[in-house]
Amino acid sequence: HGAGELPDNLQPLLEQIAEQQPDLSEVQFGAVGLGSSEYDTFCGAIKQIDDLLIARGAKRIGDRLEIDVTDHEIPEDPAEEWVKNWINLL
Q: Comparing C-alpha atoms, which of 5, 81, 83 is closest to residue 43?
């Protein structure tokens, strides 16, 4: 999380997908973001990743989860609930 920017370790992957524009129509994914709603760019990184994957044909399974650290003292709690529901969609 942070101010909504992509983590450094994901930047090269996203750049490569944007540049090479691969067909990801066989890819399915789940999306979970962590951020603070105190920033205007709340969960900006997961939104950017989600948008890029979908633009390349990948299919998101279920809804994107955006965890607000100002609402959840332990962010793993909503993630665990999301995973329990998400796994049934596979």
A: 5
Residue with tokens 């994901």: 10
| H or E element that contains 86 | helix 76-87
Report pLDDT digits (tens) over 35-88: 999 989 999 999 999 999 999 999 999 999 999 999 998 999 999 999 999 999
Question: How many Cβ atoms sit within 10 Å of the Cβ of residue 49?
Answer: 19
Nearby residues of 43 by Cβ (< 8 Å), 6 or more positions away? 1, 4, 33, 34, 35, 66, 67
pTM, entire model:
0.88
* SS3 of 25-80: CCCEECCEEEECCCCCCCCHHHHHHHHHHHHCCCEECCCCEEEECCCCCCCHHHHH
